Amino acid sequence: MTSSYSNLRIELVEISFEKIKPRAEEFASSFYQHLFEAYPETQGLFGKTDMDKQEKKLISSLVLLVEGLRTPAALVPVLKDLGARHKGYGTLTEYYPLVGEILLKTFAEYLQEDWTPEVTQAWVDTYTTISQLMLEGAGVDISHLSIDPDIEKPQSLPQVSVYSVKETTLQLSPDAKIELVETSFEKIKPCAEEFASSFYQNLFEAYPETKHLFGKTDMDKQGKKLINSLILLVEGLRKPEELVPVLKDLGARHKGYGILTKYYPLMGEILLKSFAEYLQEDWTPEVAQAWVDTYMTISQLMLEGAGVDVAVKLEQPEIFTPLTRETVSPAWARHGKRIRAVTQQRNFSKVIKPLLKPIKLIQNIFKNIFKKILDWFWKSPTWLVAISIASSLVILVIVTPDDSIISRLLSDVEPISIIAALILYIKESPDRKKEFQYQAWSVIDASHGVKVSPARIIALQDLNEDGVTLNNLDLPGAKLARINLPKADLSEANLTKSDLNHANLNYANLGNALLARVNLTGANLSHANLGFAKLSYANLSSANLTHANLICADLRDTNLSGANLSNANLSGADMKNAYLTGANLEGANVSEYDLRGAYLKGAIMPDGSKHA
Question: What is the reported pTM?
Answer without folding.
Answer: 0.41
